[in-house]
Amino acid sequence: MERPPERQAIRGVELVSVSKLYANGQRAVDRVSLTIDPGRLLVLVGPSGCGKSSVLRMIAGLEDISEGEIRIGDRVVNDLPPKERDVAMVFQNYALYPHMTVFENMAFALTMKKRPRAEVESTVRDTAAMLGLEEKLERRPRELSGGERQRVALGRAMVRRPQVFLFDEPLSNLDARLRVQMRGEIHRLHRRLGATMIYVTHDQVEAMTLGEQIAVLEGGVLQQMADPQTLYHRPANRFVAGFIGSPSMNFVAASVGTDGRVTIEGGEPFVPEAAPAGLAGHRGRAVTLGMRPEDLAPAANGAGVRLEAAVDVREPLGNEVLIYWNTAAGALTSRMAGAGPSVGERVSLHVPFDRLYWFDAGSGAAIV
Ligand code: ADP
User: Fold this and answer.
1) pLDDT (0 to 100) of residue 167
2) Are the beta carbons of 296 and 260 closer than 8 angstroms?
3) How confident is the model at residue 294 (pLDDT cuts 50, 70, 90)?
4) Is 163 in the pocket of ligand 1 (CB under 6 A)?
5) Distances in whole angstroms, Cα of residue 310 to Cα of each of 42, 213, 264
6) Ligand 1 centre from 241 Cα, in Å?
């Protein structure tokens, strides 16, 4: 009897200065370098059009690599056809074969490879058990819910036992509750399979909840790759600071005097405590101050930045409330517990010095 293929050591993925230039000359991916260690899950996140799918499709072999090198394990795969790369991709459009049962859909890749019947049977049944699909194996896709169909699509990738799973916005078609549930399942699968996974999404919440490591892309350029805590608390630049976190970080224009004092538009000069060392190099220059909505609250005293503000709009969320403020420095948002102030109320807003984020006004780079 033929034995199932041996499971090889798990492989990681490495991109070395990878670019994608499409026929129109557009540089959709611009010299991206990153390493995904074997067995890790990397989330690639960024707004629509930032180049996420292009990166994924180059790894899968569905797009040529214009510049640079992609390695899976110790093999350079630039010139390998997709089927020799040992990767499986799960798409947003799961495109199951409508005339086949769940079993047949999941078995398809193995049947094509002419694996022995007993192996196909046991692999599909084991995989279905992992995904809670045992009872659905004889159904056709139209007899399944959206979440079940997405699980079949996952199963179809899993039975191939690939070295690397690539997910391209696989949950976008699902409603909010199912997305949360499927995220949990992907988490569990990742732990259980121990395979290397790359997961693309435009949704920063999804990225934060799934990612051990998150790579933020914008304009085809890798902005920062880090764990969720680091991205949130130590963003590399203004783009990452504004992209990660909901509601977004507030930004106000400020200038640093030659004496080191800082002035926010419409405010009094202040001497910042706990300022980053790099701020000394910005004397006489414009900077951008960042403030997270949860750090911005009415307070009568305490060391920090103060802004006079009036409530413009309130959005109660039950356990907390979002307040949109008008200030001389522009519109600001805060997120606070309880009911918060009423529309029109005027308060003195406060942010502790150690909660300020500082950015170069020109480049947007974080000042550290
Ligand atoms: P994302 O997945 O982040 O939405 P994509 O990788 O799909 O971004 O696209 C990145 C950029 O490349 C976009 O500006 C897109 O319009 C462009 N692009 C994608 N595919 C092609 C193509 N086949 N030909 C030309 N331009 C493309």
Assistant:
1) 93
2) no
3) very high
4) no
5) 42, 39, 17
6) 24
Strands 213-218 and 41-45: parallel
Ligand 1 closest atom vs CA 47? 3
Could you tell me the strand order of the sheet in which 164-168 lies? 87-91, 164-168, 196-201, 41-45, 213-218, 221-226
Taking a C-beta distance cutoff of 8 angstroms, is the pair 306, 350 a contact?
yes
Angle at 137 between CA 134 and CA 142, to 5 degrees: 125
The reply to whether ligand 1 has any atom less than 6 angstroms from the CB of 319 is: no
Which residue's CA is the nearest one to ligand 1's atom 7? 53
What tens digit of pLDDT does each residue of 87-136 get?
998 887 778 999 999 999 999 999 999 999 999 999 999 999 988 899 99
- How big is the chain by its Cα radius of gyration, in Å? 25
Q: Is 8 in a helix, a strand, or coil?
A: coil
Rounded to two decimals, the pTM is 0.91
22 in contact with ligand 1, CB cutoff 6 A: yes
